[in-house]
Amino acid sequence: MGHFSSTQTTLLKGVGILLIVLHNYYHNLTPLIGENEFAYSQKTFWTFYQTLKISPENFLRAVFSYFGHYGVQIFIFFSTYGLTLKYQKQSLNIGEFFKNRVVKIYFSFLLCVAVYIVLACIKSSFLTNQKVLYWDSLLWKVLLASNFIPRQALMPVGPWWFLPFIMQVYVLYPWLLKAHGKFGVGLFVLVSGGSFLLEWLVNPYLIQQGLNINHTVFGHLSVVCLGIILALQPAIKLPIRYLMLALVVFTLANVNAIFWIAADLSFSVLFLAIAIIALKALSQKGVMTGLLLFYGTISFHLFMVNGFLRSLFHNIAETYHLSWLNDITALASLLFSTLCAYLLMLFDKRLRAVFG
Asked: Model pTM?
């Protein structure tokens, strides 16, 4: 195929955000299944496998708990892919680039933080014996420094680790684009290889210190580079030998720590291949297309709010531990978060129209 259109990109982001939101809900339900997202554990895979084998009624919980986090890689890929399609046709002014990123994303994040604080203050009035607001964690997050502070990356809301991370991507992106023009794909191979070596040699030590390279751009450079490389090609081509290699690596990544280092990259390649096939089959005006486009449109706001809006539904599920109730509350949580994200997006747009 040629390149993904903006509409197709939005649709695929819709797939990504649904994976993420359902993962964020299911993966905290007990008994925990876990996921090999920021660190690898072979035990986690076998827990996932045994859950499917012994309790097939927990299929949705198991699959989204274990695999759903890969939706983040869809956003990472399309972030640099989309930027590269744009800036290969026009010059990149670094000052203007950063200004646009801050205006587009950081303002919306601060709005979500404000909503979180208001809801937390209301909650704290009913839970006087429980700490609800973690002001130090909020400060590190707003300063975009939390991913470099021990045990703060996933505080106070887990999915918010992505905000400092994506800002790091934007800081590095202009340099990567310029470097590609000067040195070509070979440099990106070295950059990706260096990222894999850091994961293998350094990350175990960082984890002991309460840090993790996968909370930063340095743990995802291979997917970042993939987005740039494919955007600069005349058309997206995924040779069958690369797809077979990606399938082998992704399969082995579930049972081997070394192969797991390349799990995000191999998943991204496989997802793109599946996406190309699926986009040809989807009706341009079908219900599924419209639904995914809608979720792609609200994806950022949904990403930001789903982590702190699920507690009511989560508590119901944790009270009864019934597989069918887990699925119903997951759907209810998704729909409630969807409504809130949509309203927040409209409010965000209204504020930008007033003050922009």
From this structure: 0.95
